[in-house]
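Format is chain and fold; as here:
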Amino acid sequence: MKRYYLILLILLSILLSVGFNSEDKDKNTVKAGKKMQEFVIGISDFARKQKSDFIVIPQNGSELAFENSNPDKNLSTSYLKAIDGIAIEELFYDEKGKADNYRIENLKKLPKEKKIMVSEFVKNKDDIDKVIQLNQTVNFVPFIRTAENYHYHLIPENINLENANNITKLSDVQNFLYLINADDFDTKKQLIEAVANTNFDLVLIDLYYYSFSYTKAELELLKKKKNGGKRLVICYMNVGAAENWRNYWQPDWKLGNPKWLKKKYKGYDNEIYVEFWDANWQKLIYGNEESYTQKVINAGFDGVFLDNVEAYYNLYND
């Protein structure tokens, strides 16, 4: 009998421990969500004080558009004021060919003026037209990434809703090019010429061609479509994970050093999730002349694309 009660006590202890850990995890996630909202707002305010029409597009983390990062609560007006739209990966078509109805319904709750840009990874090319139609039905703008373009290094031949319109704000965008990997281009000049020879409404690229930053003159070439229309050029910026090839990375950095290099990024050995609220990390990203955001502004980009804002969740959840 004593052994029976001992087993019950052990099981009860385990259940209580799991419950408390889950509660702590939820509390930490909510707190981190608020800190990410503040981080994005800070980046936006810093940039727009210099360029009032500067565009801010966070990728993923759509829950941040709501109070307490909870889609069952009201919209976060301060966060939505700071951004122009939201980018999402694999929405109507994930790696198993299924739709993410949870995120789709969350995004439908957002104001119509907030542009939704979707990068869909479509393994079966026969499904491309269907996926495009699913996005367009709800006024989302899709970029189709096939298996051979897994790392965002190719320029697709087909442009959905190709046009000669002058694109001056995010709400004008009907299609976009997601090109953050320069591996297929032997020189910066080759990449610029290839992009300039397209009619995408918006081009998303990195601040650098390898270690060489794009200049204002080079970006002006990219801001003009082949057909003569104007377009937007947006800069990729990772705000939730540190990348070990960036110029801010120090030789002695590793997981836990500095302490805000917090968690391994599964599937990406060259990146580490950061405690993004740490003052040292935020100083690298915005708020001063040497910050990444300032370099983006100085180069002449129309805005920033903030990757890994969902780090607020991934830091505490597997």
